[in-house]
Amino acid sequence: MNINPRKRKETHRGKDKYYQSKEWKRLRGDIKKRDKGICQGCLKSSGVVHIAGKYATVDHIIPRKTKMLSLAKQPEWMEEYDFFMLKQRIFESGYDIPENLMLVCKQYHDKKSAKEKIK
Ligand SMILES: [Zn+2]
Fold it and tell me: Which has the higher per-residue pLDDT, 113 or 44?
């Protein structure tokens, strides 16, 4: 195995402190419970049902496009928007809300992240 510690830091999450916060950890716990430990990535992309396992990650369905935390978190005004408006906003900014998060296994996440980098 070729593990380069410098390379590991260059993920899309980088040194973002948000991913160390209690808030994110709580949200992540909620998603794990909701998805019952099953990898949603493999389920949705290829119909394979398997337990996401020890190195499971909670991933954004639409990648978060903003570095600004205040924009990534669930906005207060959200309830005022209807479903299509909400969908549009998620699509544009990749919010950190349960609707835009899913539990995935490490392999799925690594594959997806690699694809996102190429684009
Ligand atoms: Zn998987």
Answer: 44
Cα 38 to ligand 1 centroid, rounded to whole Å: 8
Q: How far is the CA of 53 from the centre of ligand 1 (A)?
A: 9
Q: Is 112 within a domain?
A: yes
Kindly state the greatest CA–CA separation across the chain: 50
Beta carbons within 8 Å of 32's beta carbon, 6+ residues apart = 56, 58, 103
Q: Which residues surround ligand 1, an ion (CB under 5 A)?
A: 39, 42, 105, 108
The string of pLDDT tens digits covering residues 4-41 is: 554 444 445 556 777 788 888 999 999 999 999 999 99
- The answer to whether residue 4 is domain-embedded is no
Range of the domain at 27: 13-118
